[in-house]
Every structure is written in C-alpha cells, then in structure tokens.
Amino acid sequence: MNAVPDLLDFDELLTDDERATRDRVREFVDARIRPNIADWYDRAIFPVELVPELAELGLLGMHLSGYGCAGRSAVEYGLAAMELEAGDSGLRTFVSVQGSLAMSAIHKHGSEAQKQEWLPRMARGEVIGCFGLTEPNSGSDPSSMTTFARREGDGWVLNGAKRWIGLASIAQVAIIWAQTEDGVRGFIVPTETEGFVATPIAPKLSMRASIQCDIALTDVRLPADALLPEARGLRAPFSCLNEARYGIGWGVIGAARDSYGTALEYSRTRMQFNQPIGAFQLTQQKLVDMAVEIEKAQLLALRLGRLKDAGTVQPHQISVAKLSNTRAAIAIAREARTILGGNGVSGDYSPLRHAANLESVRTYEGTDEIHTLILGAHITGFSAFRGTTIEGAS
Ligand SMILES: Cc1cc2nc3c(=O)[nH]c(=O)nc-3n(C[C@H](O)[C@H](O)[C@H](O)COP(=O)(O)OP(=O)(O)OC[C@H]3O[C@@H](n4cnc5c(N)ncnc54)[C@H](O)[C@@H]3O)c2cc1C
User: Tell me, what is one Gene Ontology molecular-function annotation carried by this entry (predicted)?
Assistant: First the structure.
C-alpha cells in the first residue's frame, strides 16, 4: 500500500468499526487488485473472478439492509469505495453499479417479491445487475429518453437503445428505464430475454478494467411483474444516482491517494542533479498541494457520510462532493504523473491510469457541468437547465 497523507489525524474521526472495514478492504486491494491491475488494464479485462470475493467481503449492496445485504453505514460504504478505487476506478465502479444502482433500484422501488427474488442473489454475487438510463442521444438530460415500454395484455413490450451501460454484457439482470404512457418507469429485465442484446464498447481509453455496453432492446416482452411498482418518474432513477454519486465522492479520493503515494515514493529514490527529486522545492510543492487536497477531500466526504447516516443529506450536498472531490482527484493524478517523468506514461505506475479512469468518473453520474448547475440552482434559486426543473436535475 502506498503512503497515506495524514496531516490532520483523520483516523481519529473514525470509529473502530469504520477503521476495521477500511483496513479489510485495503488488505483485499493490496493482495488481489494491486498485483494484477496493470495487466488487466492493458488487456482490457474486467476480473469477473473477483466478484465472489467482493461478495464475501460484504461489499455488494453493502449499505442496504435486509435481503442478505450487509447493512453497513454510509461512512463504511464510503471508506470501502475509497479503498477499492485506490486499486482501480473500474473495480469501485463494479461495486457502485451492482449495489448503488441495480440493487438500490430494486431495494427502493421494488415489490417485496422482487426484493426477495433478486437481492439475496445479488448480494452473494451470483447475479450481476446493470442499470440502463443513458441512451445514444440522451445523457445529461434523461427526460429526453426514447426507449418506450408499451402495454400488451397484462405485460409490456420494450423497444429502444441504451449506451454506456456498465456490466450489461455479463449481467443476468438489467434495470431498464423507459418512457411509458404514464411517464418514466423502471423495469427488471432478465438479460436472457429475447430481444435484449448487450455489446461491449471498444476500444476505450478509460476504465479499461471494466465493461460498458451498448444495449439494443427489440420487442423485449416482459410480464406485468417486471415493472418496479414504486418507481414513478425520473425521481426514481435519480434517487439511485444519488447513492452512486455519494460513493464516488469517497471513491475518487482513493485514486488520488494512490497517485500521490506513488509519486511520493518515487520522489524519494529517483536521483537527478545528484539529489532525490523529492528534495527539490518544486517537487515538494506538488506533493504538499496533493496531500492538502486529499485531506480536504476526506473531510468533505466524511461530513457527507455523517449527514447520510443521520438521514439528512440533501442532493445538492452530494453534488458538492462529487464535483469537488472528482475535480481534485483528476488534478492530483495528473500532477503525480509529472513527478514520474517518462516513467509516468508506463503502465507500471498508476497515476496516468487513475487520471484516465477519472475522466469517466467526472462524466458519469452527472458531469462537472451538471453538478455545477445543480449547485447554481440551489444557491441562486434559478434553474439554468433548459427544459427541466431543479427537482428533475438533482
Ligand atoms: C465509463 C462510463 C460508465 C457509465 N456507466 C453508465 C451506466 O452504468 N448506466 C447509465 O445509464 N449510464 C452510464 N454512463 C453514461 C453517463 O452517465 C453519461 O455519459 C453522462 O450522463 C453524460 O451523458 P453523455 O455522455 O450523453 O454526454 P452529454 O449529455 O451529451 O454531454 C456532453 C457535454 O455537454 C455538457 N452539457 C450537457 N448539458 C449541459 C447543460 N445544460 N449545460 C452545460 N453543459 C451541458 C456535458 O456536461 C458534457 O460536457 C457511463 C458513462 C461512462 C463514460
């Protein structure tokens, strides 16, 4: 594990349980992800064999209660996300898509029978889920989605297309959001259903140790009980996105910390002009700026986590962490890369991989611009989204 800046005794703010969860996930990342990630990334492989181990650690639907889920606190979930993303954003993304998006959609909006049917198997990693909201022509503005579910007898027929859907080609179940005559609704779609085709997007320059797909939906016939009964309108998918955005606010700190640690270690041993490069003031300025930003990001994430555990967190507060911590993490990963010089573009060192991954992280779950607009609307009272409402955007 790389050095962790601890200028402010952050650990003192955590409970014993929180530290124990963090340490458990950190050990897993050190043993199972760190030694292999450069190769997986290079060959664009998602290590699906790790799914049972992630389940064993209780990380799938970790913050959900009942139905075989671990029921851990928001802070513990955040710390786990941070440790996973120190390994690679792609692995944290897997846990986010499975737990915060697919499982939380069923947990929040599903019937009792749907929860019983899917959640225990998803928590055990036996069933992988995905979450299809984005479409080829509908991203930041999901109200423009054109995937449509029409009623046929008691059931439904889905037609449309989704894009950038994490895990879709290896998932057994997809949560698909679609327009209906009744507004946007969510559907539980077993991926073996005829007419459901997921194709991995390639080549990718980011998130290479992770899978994102195009999905074609052609006359996908579903029974009546495929509908998520409690999901009405865009508020339903947004409530899941908020869960995932929360995890990102923590996760990106892991990528930043690993980049910083790699650069710090390198700066202690790399000699130029007869000195370790860490002895140069210009290098120290970079390292100090990184360490200070990481401390600030941790404090922000922890504040958000405490609000979430208290049940009072507001969507705009999640935007503060998603926007600020992702922005800080990208800057840190890029700056760390400069300290590595030419070696910084080799796959043997993590910062450029993290920086490339973070380009995806800054884009999904609301781009920088979208979170800025959410906060702008909150601060000024004026919505600057054209054709949508403040509530719809958050
Ligand atoms: C690796 C990866 C994984 C993903 N996983 C999933 C997933 O599992 N499920 C899923 O449903 N989606 C997923 N996505 C999709 C992601 O959520 C979208 O890419 C994101 O919402 C942005 O949509 P877009 O790509 O269509 O860009 P657009 O919405 O077309 O945006 C393009 C640019 O325009 C800007 N823009 C848009 N509207 C405004 C505005 N009003 N004011 C100012 N600027 C604006 C954006 O900020 C951006 O800079 C994933 C994407 C990636 C890259």
Answer: glutaryl-CoA dehydrogenase activity
Task: Please identify which residue in the block is written with the tokens 């390994």.
Answer: 87
Domain ranges of the chain: 10-124, 129-232, 235-380
Closest CA to 329 of 287, 292, 297: 297
What is the CATH T-level fold of the domain 235-380, as seen in this structure?
Butyryl-CoA Dehydrogenase, subunit A; domain 3 (1.20.140)
CATH superfamily of 129-232: Butyryl-CoA Dehydrogenase, subunit A, domain 2 (2.40.110.10)
* CATH assignment, 10-124: 1.10.540.10
Closest residue by CA, ligand 1 atom 17: 364
pTM: 0.96
Q: Which of 69, 66, 73 is nearest to 58 (CA)?
A: 69
Ligand 1 centre to CA of 162 (Å) is 12
- How far does residue 276's CA lie from ligand 1's centre (Å)? 42
Question: Residue 99's closest CA among 151, 72, 53, 63?
Answer: 63
Nearest atom in ligand 1 to the alpha carbon of residue 370 is 47
Q: Report which residue type is found at 185.
A: R
| Atom of ligand 1 lying closest to residue 366 CA | 21
Which tens digits make up the pLDDT trace of 163-215? 999 999 999 999 999 999 999 999 999 999 999 999 999 999 999 999 999 99
Give the residues across from 183 on adjacent strands.
180
Cβ neighbours of residue 311 closer than 8 Å, sequence gap 6 or more: none
Residue nearest to atom 38 of ligand 1 (CA): 140
Indicate whether 5 pLDDT > 80: no
Sequence-distant (≥ 6) Cβ neighbours of residue 204 within 8 angstroms? 44, 212
Active site residues: 365
Cα separation of 188 and 255, whole Å? Answer: 33
Ligand 1 centroid to residue 85 C-alpha, Å: 21
